[in-house]
Amino acid sequence: MTQPTKVFKTLVGLQNTTAIYYEKHYRMKILIICLVSLFFVSASGGLGYYFYKKNNADPVVYQTEQPFVTNIIRKTVATGSIMPRKEVLIKSQASGIVEALYVEAGGTIKVGQLIAKIKIVPNMVSVNGAENSLASSKIALEESKKEQARLEKLYQAKVVSEQEYSRATFDVKAKTESVEAAENNLQLIKEGASRKAGQVANLVYSTLEGTILDVPVKVGSSVIERNNFNEGTTIASIADMKTLVFEGKIDESEVGKLKEGMDLNLTIGAMPDKVFKAKLEYIAPKGKTEEGAIKFDIRAKVEFDESSNIRAGYSASADIILEKKDSVVAIKESMLQFSKAKDSTFVEVQQAGNQYQKKLVKTGISDGINIEVVSGVEKTDKIKIPDMKEDKDKKDEKKK
Question: pTM for the complete prediction?
Fold first, then answer.
């Protein structure tokens, strides 16, 4: 084959390849244009359908309520317990072992009634010291008596003066008293009783008339005497259950609203169906820090009858009435709405054609559910109940 023929065939091949490439590119371009056109047509149809449905949607109908007349009580709550006003802990005056108990918890008792008998377990060091003191006192007494006898003979013989003889007689009497005191001391240490004074340290008596709340010891238990260095073992707890008080705590944010003499409504946990009246009589001048908050102690006198059978230590909650208004125009507090700046309060009142008009209102006291409306609406107004879900969606949009 000649050289011109080869060149010609090569040029023809290149031309065919170029034609095929441009044909494929053209077809791809046509396909893309069709797809884009189809997308725009579909999107336009979807948007048209959406706006059509939106314009022809049923109008939103909100629920409404009218203002009503009611009594509103603003109160705060304090938690605490029921306690007796007078309660004493009976202690032992002698250390030893409980030999007998004459009372039981829950019973009544009078002043001076015997509660328990303590068996003295003497301290051997104290006993030894008391015995040595008694022996020394007896020796001193014998010597004093001998001296008195000697001086008596001399006095009768007119050898010594009457004054010297009287001094010896007085010394005998003093030594006799010392012996008796040493004997009583020894008896107190050993038995807890004194023959001369008629006192018994190992018997425990009641010092209050009332109800026995608790007897924490048993027969055979060891007890420690009450002294300047030790509180001693409690033999019994006695209280006057005729005068009960409510002792509770209240937060510092509420204590400034309280005054002595306020009425309280007590609800006792063990008696939920009854409400007891009480009168606030004490507010602590100083608060205490509890779990990071400042709490103030309060006390109120409980009014009850004996048939109520209230027990000491019952947990209770007190509703303290801070303010009360009768027969006021009120609405549900959830119907109030607030401006963005939180400087005005309003409600939406229904108008003709399912339209709503904002009206500023002035409010009074609230109990957390209902709130007094001083001005701004009439009793016949129909007030819109805000859609909580709608308000939440608006707040979420603002956050975004």
Answer: 0.57
